[in-house]
Amino acid sequence: MPPASLKRVTSTDRDISPPPAKRKVTGTVNSNVVANFFKPTSQKSPEKVIFHVSAETILVARYEDAVTAKRPRPLKIAAFDFDDTIVATKSGNRFSKAPDDWRWWHATVPGRLKQLHHDGYAVVIVSNQGAVSLRADTKAPKDGMRSLNNFKGKVTAVLNTLELPITLYAGTGPDLSRKPRTGMWQQLLKDYGLSDDGDIDHENCVFVGDAAGREADKASGTRKDHACSDRDFAANVGISFQTPEEYFLGEPVKSFIRTFDPASYVNVELTAQTDVSPIVFTKKHDVELVLSCGSPGAGKSTFYWQHMQPLGYERVNQDILKSRDKCIKVATQCLEDRQPVVVDNTNADIETRAAWIGVARKMKVPIRLVYFTASAKLCEHNDTARALTGHLMNPEKRTMLPKMAFTGFTARHREPRVEEGFEDITRVDFKFEGSDEQKAQWMRYWIS
């Protein structure tokens, strides 16, 4: 099922088809395209590849009747990544530098795609294109706009050469549209008028992509995959997965490694010993100062609302107050009013914690610390799931943080010790807590 915040508004679609005059002819296009190129404008055939933008960040390219073509139901879908799966660069560069810098990934690709169409499959392309900018204003990065023009030119050439009713979805934003998240799949279902329950033959669908989590193989000279996002995307939408080598060349399945698998945390939870007592934070003094220490997304705020707010603690948070000085001012006022306080910030380094120890000494109150141990990858997953599932897990309406927020915390982090001046330290290891609906969403693959 799509995340709760996934809403597609038809009015966000806008036409950004490339102007015919800028079309380039390469050695890979067919004779019909070449003949049409030299015709006067008034005699040229209508463009067969039409571009538009859906859901604000998804660039859609459609060849002729890609959506309306008649196919058997329930529908079989053959979905493919684009770069290093359908095509590769002629130049050998990782990314195309021009619209004609492409070749088939393997000579068998076009024939295999045509056979799929003959067999009644809907053939679609689902590709992450984070370097492409869809911004139409003057502040759009020049490199991003250049990438957009290059990408549209390449896609036009590829689809015109295949002459198949194919739709291409390119996710350009760091949002629900980016694999392994399912925004492009949900847009596909909407465009093709499909329900994920009943309209699709999931058992005979497949997604083919090169981001498969494979390790480097010195014997064959193959490099480590840059991510596992294609394999995770297929898992999220509930269809089988193959690499290009497996699908087009019939090579045996290779082992892979996921750097982060949310199911492993749930499995640990389910198999945990029943005699292990849950972490319980107790209030030791009528007035005390408590620091949280942990990465963004480690569960600090959730822990406060579930375990500390009921005990009467006031909450001080820098995301709300915007500066440490303001946090210190508000916390000091609470302590003067004889109210216990929780400082719900990351408090990653010794220097930051020392400032709060100084406040406690000045106010002559005990200071304690709650240490949240979740790893950077787990925290990034938590933050992304929270931000992109709307009200389901995000009552404070927090936006998704950049990866730098987690790597930055890791760089600054020094494990807290009682010797710094704390009365005690309560350690909190992450454990998912939520409804079955929340767990189902949380267990998706959200990060690459």
TrEMBL record:
Pfam families (alphabetical): AAA_33, PNK3P
An MF annotation (GO) of this entry: double-stranded DNA binding
Cross-referenced SUPFAM superfamilies: HAD-like, P-loop containing nucleoside triphosphate hydrolases
Positions of the UniProt region annotated as Disordered: 1-25
One GO term (biological process): DNA repair
InterPro entries: HAD-like_sf (IPR036412), HAD-SF_hydro_IIIA (IPR006549), HAD_sf (IPR023214), P-loop_NTPase (IPR027417), PNK3P (IPR013954), Polynucleotide_phosphatase (IPR006551)
Keyword field: Kinase, Transferase
Protein name, per record: DNA kinase/phosphatase Pnk1
